[in-house]
Amino acid sequence: MRPEHLVYQIQGFLLVLFLAAWGLWLLIGHLRRGRPDLAIGLALMAAVGIRLAAAAGISLLPNSRDLRGTDELVFLYDSTTEVVNLNSGASPSAEQLRALPLADMFSVDVITPLHTWLIALQQRAFDASDLTLRLTLIMLAVTGLALLAAAVYDLAGPAAAQLAAWLMAFEPTSVFFSGYLHKDPLITFAVGLVTYGFVRMWRQRSLRALAIIVAGCVVATLTRPYVGWVLAAAAVTLTLHAAMRSQQRQRAALLAGTAVCFSVVAGFVALQQAPAQLERLQRSQEANVNDSSNLKYEAVDYSTPAAIATSLPVRVSDFLLRPYPWQLQNLNQQLGALGGVVVLIALFSVATSFVRSRGVIMARAGPLLYVGGALILAYSVTAGNAGTAFRLRENVTAVLICTACALRPRREEKAAEPARGPLRLAAPAGQRPSAAAPG
């Protein structure tokens, strides 16, 4: 690489770093306007630093390509075709998008999938280096974490939000895959938007919250369409639930009408696409279960909606629990299994929180349960092997961490609990209680 080209790429990296840090600072300032004690800035700085260091460190390793897999090469370069054919149905690579005229790069067909389009746009604008591309995705992922922490604040207060921010900052799966040139960082950003909008809808039932939810669903749909549609279905259900909780009849009627209209349109589109999508899903499952991977799942039937419902419990268990320790064969899979351990810890924390928070679970964490349930449903149906689940569990883990933090007992509740002492039987009416016998 020529020295002037290296200087040019360094300048591009510093420019993206400045713009991304400025945008994150503005977001934190906006979130703190109505939340003066939202103390997540230091946790977010740590999240950016550790993710950027991990991305740079892995790139310096001689086996970095083996650790990250070959998906990045597919998104960056595609040697099968030299010219983009937008009518072929295949997703173009970033190198192909970069060669398009500038006006064509903003076509709807080209923007999907969104992460490839962002990569191509940066490469075209200033020939972005590998680390610059990873920095962009890292900042988008951390922005999603900031929105998740703000959602926890609105549900459970500043202490829970700060704890959630620090836990998400050092969660190993997020640290590794946030700097991965893949769809996952953008899905984290979309999940943050949707969750933040869900909480605002749950508490305030405003149309502004609906706009935030729509923005998150659009980003998710442009990145992973099935995630976007499942989140949209969860948004309809939550909006109806929020409308039923509202005591203002006009606002409740408006929200309910909006949700019903959206569900009718979405249902019509889903019915039109259902046969083709079911066939595609079944082919994908058959291809995954017939390969030679040690992480493949057992075959299930996805030929009909009823068959999907029957097979779903098996796939949910596979997605959350596999791979098992005896299925790991190399360093890449062993590192990925760290995320599985964190998922198990988060599931245990959520389960114990459910026991402690009986009767107030939906009031404290209802929006988080909607988001988490939608993600588990979407990923369990589509995941074909446990290797893919390494990445997909990143977003589920973040929502589980937020749920566990939101359900933690608050300080005032702990102080209000009566002190536990020895059990004393009440004396019959008209009698004085006798003194305890010594010894």
Outline:
The protein has 439 residues and is mainly α.
Description:
It is a single chain. Helix 2 runs parallel beside helix 9, helix 8 runs antiparallel to helix 9 (158-169) and helix 11 packs antiparallel against helix 17 (361-382). The protein has one domain (3-68, 129-410). It starts with a helix and ends in a 23-residue tail after the last helix. It has 19 helices and no strands. By secondary structure, the chain is mainly α. The model is unreliable at 79-89 and 419-439 (pLDDT under 50). It has helices at 3-33, 41-60, 64-68, 71-76, 94-98, 108-111, 114-126, 130-156, 158-169, 172-177, 184-203, 207-223, 225-245, 249-289, 305-321, 331-356, 361-382, 386-406, 411-416. It is globular.
- Share of residues in helices: over 70%
Structural class: mainly alpha
Q: Tally of extended strands?
A: 0
Low-confidence stretches: 79-89, 419-439
Number of domains: 1
Radius of gyration: 24 Å
Succession of helices and strands: HHHHHHHHHHHHHHHHHHH
Mean pLDDT comes to 78
- Coarse morphology: globular
Number of helices: 19
Instruction: Name the assembly state.
Output: single chain
Q: Strand share of the residues?
A: under 5%
Instruction: State the end-to-end distance.
Output: 86 Å
**Biggest sheet, open or closed, and with what strands and sense?**
none
Task: Give the arrangement of secondary structure elements.
Elements (H helix, E strand, L loop, with lengths): L2 H31 L7 H20 L3 H5 L2 H6 L17 H5 L9 H4 L2 H13 L3 H27 L1 H12 L2 H6 L6 H20 L3 H17 L1 H21 L3 H41 L15 H17 L9 H26 L4 H22 L3 H21 L4 H6 L23
Helix pairs in contact: 1-8, 2-8, 2-9, 8-9, 8-11, 8-18, 9-18, 11-12, 11-13, 11-17, 11-18, 12-13, 13-14, 13-17, 15-17, 16-18, 17-18
